[in-house]
Batch of 2 targets.
Target 1
Amino acid sequence: MIEIIPNWHPILVHFTIALFATSTGLFFVGSIFSNKSWGDTLLKVAHVNLWIGAVITILTLLAGWDAYNTVNHDAPSHAAMTDHKNWAFVTAALFGVVTLWSFISNRKTLKVGKLFLLTIAVAATLLAVTGYKGGEVVYRYGLGVMSMPQVSGDGGHGSHSHGEGDDHGNESSESDEYQGSYYDKKEEHKDDGHAH
């Protein structure tokens, strides 16, 4: 099996977010335009996206639980992971309720009521917060990455070397002269008075 660092959670979570976010948007747009023929189509797609998102979310939670219990971490990053995990369980539970509601109501009609829209909007808001907190775990605390670079100076491009001859425009040796990119090698544009 393909080895994913730290596991499959970073891949699966993007499907969860995309499917639930798309579903939420389609429920609103489909409800606004329910009197149009394509409004029902949007509602069908919204229901299906929600159901697929719920199935993927089960896998996302399992992979997230595995990451939570296996990724090396310190006390501050443990607190951040726990916060993310708690938000994820609440968010998944609410989407689980919405999915069940959708599945049952879809037997009678594609249309959804205002309470359903309010509930899925709250769930989508929780999803955004959970995603933000997951990003914090990775980008602020460095969890689930193979290594963090040793920062020198201010961390900007001028404070470190990228190797011999690649000094962001500083003089380089003749053998390392810039050869140009694909875009640089296109024929030069001639301004012969034509419109742009």
Target 2
Amino acid sequence: MAEALLHHLSRGRVQVFSAGSDPQPRVHPLARETLEHRYGIATSELYPKSMNAFLGERFDYVITVCDRAAEVCPVFPGDPQRIHWSFEDPAAIDGESAQRRAFAAAAHGIAARLRLWLSVPAVRRRLDDAGSPEPPASAVDVIPDAGDA
């Protein structure tokens, strides 16, 4: 969800990648539902990715959104700024109704943090200076595996 939310909130000005240490075969249906219905984000192009696909890549920021992800997140070259936000894995919640609420809460919390991050002067400047075809910043977020999005 974080990848789709950051891409949406930045209006595509941030090149963003999302990955897990042991990704599920498909994006969780409630992650898709939350993004589509609450944020109007198309999800047909989203798919789980392994963080191994990004080893050796350079990023400006690495954002982790759960404690387990922070523990297993590899070191990326170029000394990216690491940011950690602790969110409970909504896919780990029992019961569909409770899980639906957990996905909505996680998306709301991640979106709120991303809005704040996007307003940080250094980040804002890089986004405002986006005069070239290349995005001004890149970020990878390492997500919990059960609800990869």
